[in-house]
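thought: user wants a sequence for this fold. calling inverse folding tool.
action: design(structure=
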């Protein structure tokens, strides 16, 4: 099978650091049981969600090419999604939140291509193709919601994380994998749950990423729309969970009007949610997002933005008022009267303007770090960036001049000016010196023997955000997850059951079948007495063929399964209700 993903131009636009997460969807790996799980969930969902989901859901299923009968093929999805300006890629389970959101910013839907086990048919803590494909994809056919998703990704991927956030991501990823895997020892699950609980109970001050992940959870994943008294479902987590989509509509789940306070409401991914938020319409989602973005360092900058980046210990960017952008790991800031007066990065750093690296100022040149004063010159109201050529000449800020610049906050820069670089507005954004000494009071920050000193120009920091300004400045092909999804084990018993599922599917599709429906039922009831889904499928076909004798035998068998496995009794009943409701309607 062709496993390339070059089926949508949007995917080709993705930067390399996002492409590293993409894996081929090997459609042949889906087993007949996987297909039966998809069909059961989708038939039940469409029947139920047609009544309680936002009107975009059923329309979206048709528009995005998602078939009820079979697990969607990503390549077919991409051809159809292209028409509404989106694409889809397959990934392995959870990926880091920044990357997940950045995919959205490129109008690319991330789909975990694995599918839940039959044992977890109602809900799985691990992302799977039911959740992503049948949950997220249909709603993006609504243009207003699709723009919210794109905008959310654009803003969310700039949110500054903390070291705690990444530890939480790794812990939740591992727990979801262990819970979804077959026969994981209970002790392992309990240890993973304990670790997640400890992290959740010691959140401390929520980072921007933690807060925006909360907003994402309470909207994109678990959002309701309409009124508190009469809400409809649009969140993918609810649309893909046949258990929780019904549970959320009861009085057991508290409904709250959606507002920015949801940013501080954390969630537990492994349990049903005790409360949900209701937005009056999709436009309101964008209003809350903008309200939150206005509080992010992305828009506020300043000392607090720099401090957030230093605390994150990760690659980030600050942008000065001239538009020059400094990307690297921020390690120090000198402040004076609540304002930053000097910033310092450690290690590879790049300088950019309007998200494009400045020629000659990449990570090879600034391999050891970068430091620069910020602010105005002491005793001069006119900032360097606002000076006219005459002003600059008056203050000796001119090529070939030996100059000492005294900044507010006791930062001095003394050296011979080599040259300056200007932005498109004509403002100086960078001044280079030779034989330069930079001091904060008596502390030397840069000395002549270190080479050329490049000084960024800007009276204030207007933005601080996660990641580099120019994605091409840094090698970010580095993602190595600490855990990998665990595939289902094969056994002779399992293979025999899969063959029976395949045989029944062939009968339904009018293809060649090795054995009859009656023989398939005899085999599954005798050799796999705990399996229930195949018997439900056989009952559907027997009823359709008006084979009352076989139908009665299957129903009697399913009653025994209900008695021996009460935990699946409601699933059997739901499946049968769907069959007999349709035949008696």
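)
observation: tool returned 585 residues.
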């Amino acid at each position: 099978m062709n496993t390339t993903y070059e089926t949508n131009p949007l995917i080709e636009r993705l930067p390399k650091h996002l492409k590293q997460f993409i894996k081929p969807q090997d459609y042949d790996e889906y087993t007949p049981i996987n297909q039966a799980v998809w069909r059961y969930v989708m038939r039940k969902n469409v029947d139920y969600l047609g009544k309680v989901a936002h009107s975009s859901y059923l329309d979206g299923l048709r528009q995005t090419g998602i078939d009820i009968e079979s697990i969607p093929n990503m390549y077919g999805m991409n051809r159809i999604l292209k028409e509404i300006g989106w694409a889809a890629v397959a990934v392995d389970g959870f990926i880091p939140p920044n990357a997940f959101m950045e995919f959205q910013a490129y109008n690319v839907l991330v789909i975990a291509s694995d599918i839940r086990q039959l044992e977890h048919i109602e809900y799985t803590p691990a992302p799977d193709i039911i959740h992503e494909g049948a949950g997220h994809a249909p709603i993006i056919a609504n243009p207003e919601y699709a723009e919210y998703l794109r905008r959310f990704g654009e803003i969310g991927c700039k949110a500054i994380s903390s070291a705690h956030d990444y530890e939480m991501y790794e812990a939740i990823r591992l727990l979801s994998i262990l819970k979804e895997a077959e026969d994981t020892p209970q002790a392992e699950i309990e240890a993973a749950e304990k670790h997640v609980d400890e992290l959740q109970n010691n959140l401390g001050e929520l980072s921007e990423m933690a807060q925006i992940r909360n907003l994402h959870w309470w909207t994109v994943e678990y959002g309701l729309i309409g009124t508190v008294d009469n809400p409809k479902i649009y969140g993918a987590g609810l649309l893909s969970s046949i258990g929780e989509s019904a549970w959320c509509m009861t009085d057991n789940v508290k409904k709250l009007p959606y507002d920015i306070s949801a940013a501080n409401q954390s969630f537990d991914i492994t349990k049903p949610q005790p409360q949900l938020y209701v937005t009056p319409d999709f436009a309101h989602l964008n209003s809350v997002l903008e309200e939150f973005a206005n509080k992010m360092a992305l828009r506020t900058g300043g000392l607090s933005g720099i401090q957030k980046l230093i605390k994150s210990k990760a690659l980030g960017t600050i942008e000065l008022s001239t538009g020059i952008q400094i990307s690297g790991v921020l390690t120090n800031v000198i402040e004076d009267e609540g304002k930053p007066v000097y910033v310092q990065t450690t290690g590879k750093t790049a300088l950019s303007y309007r998200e494009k690296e400045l020629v000659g100022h990449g990570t090879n040149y600034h391999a050891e770090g970068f430091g620069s004063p910020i602010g105005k010159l002491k005793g001069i109201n006119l900032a360097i960036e606002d000076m006219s050529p005459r002003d600059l000449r008056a203050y000796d800020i001119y090529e070939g001049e030996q100059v000492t610049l005294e900044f507010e906050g006791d930062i001095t820069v003394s050296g011979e000016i080599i040259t300056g670089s200007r932005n498109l507005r004509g403002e100086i954004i960078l001044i280079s010196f030779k034989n330069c000494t930079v001091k904060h009071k008596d502390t030397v920050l840069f000395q002549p023997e270190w080479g050329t000193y490049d000084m960024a120009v800007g009276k204030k920091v207007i933005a601080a955000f996660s990641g580099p300004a120019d994605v091409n400045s840094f090698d970010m092909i580095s993602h190595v997850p600490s855990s990998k999804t665990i595939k289902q084990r094969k056994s002779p018993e399992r293979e025999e059951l899969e063959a029976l599922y395949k045989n029944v599917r062939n009968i339904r599709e009018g293809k060649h079948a090795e054995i009859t429906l009656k023989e398939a039922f005899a085999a599954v009831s005798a050799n796999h007495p705990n399996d229930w889904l195949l018997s439900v499928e056989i009952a559907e076909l027997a009823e359709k063929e008006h084979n009352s004798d076989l139908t009665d035998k299957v129903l009697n068998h399913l009653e025994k399964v209900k008695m021996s496995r009460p935990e699946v009794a409601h699933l059997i009943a739901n499946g049968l209700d769907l069959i007999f409701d349709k035949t008696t309607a």
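thought: summarizing for user.
answer: Here is the designed sequence. Confidence is low (pLDDT under 50) at residues 1-6.
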